[in-house]
Write a structure and sequence with these properties.
Layout: E1 17-22, E2 26-31, E3 37-43, E4 49-55, E5 57-64, E6 67-72, E7 81-84, E8 86-87, E9 93-97, E10 106-113, E11 116-117, E12 122-127
Antiparallel strand pairs: 1-2, 3-4, 3-12, 5-6, 6-10, 7-12, 8-9, 9-10, 10-11
């Protein structure tokens, strides 16, 4: 097995797209600018990130029960696409994007259970283009 080490990769056809050949001729073209997560947070019910569980998150705000926002260290060029989690314990939970607070420099979420907004541990991943 060979190891490739480099500081920069640039696509031949499109600067931000790289073709990856994996296994028995399987070919995948990946847009590295848009196709990678730009932010990640795993937080407690007070919006405080769990130890070493955030990427590109500068600070957090607890706006009230189940309503949280995270300021990005490096903003996106426009509002991103967010993927949040659902969690199951004795009461199902889901975390979803809060478009009222979300923006290029902010990842905002609302955390629900079957009774409505509730506090709870949550994780979110944000995709988009960095500014």
């Amino acid at each position: 097995m060979s190891t490739l080490r480099t500081n920069a990769l640039e696509g031949m056809d499109a600067k931000n797209s790289i073709t990856i050949v994996a296994g028995a001729g399987n070919i995948t073209t990946t847009n590295v600018q848009e196709g990678l997560a730009k932010a990640y947070v795993r937080a407690n019910d007070d919006a405080q990130t769990q130890e070493n569980q955030s990427v590109n998150v500068a600070s957090s705000t607890d706006h009230g029960t189940g309503d949280y926002s995270y300021t990005l260290t490096n903003s996106l060029d426009t509002r991103g696409v967010q993927v949040s989690n659902n969690r199951r314990d004795s009461n199902p939970h889901i975390t979803c994007m809060n478009e009222d607070r979300d923006g290029a420099g902010t990842m905002a979420v609302r955390h629900y259970n079957t009774s409505g907004l509730t506090g709870g541990r949550h994780l979110c991943v944000l995709f988009g283009d960095l500014a």
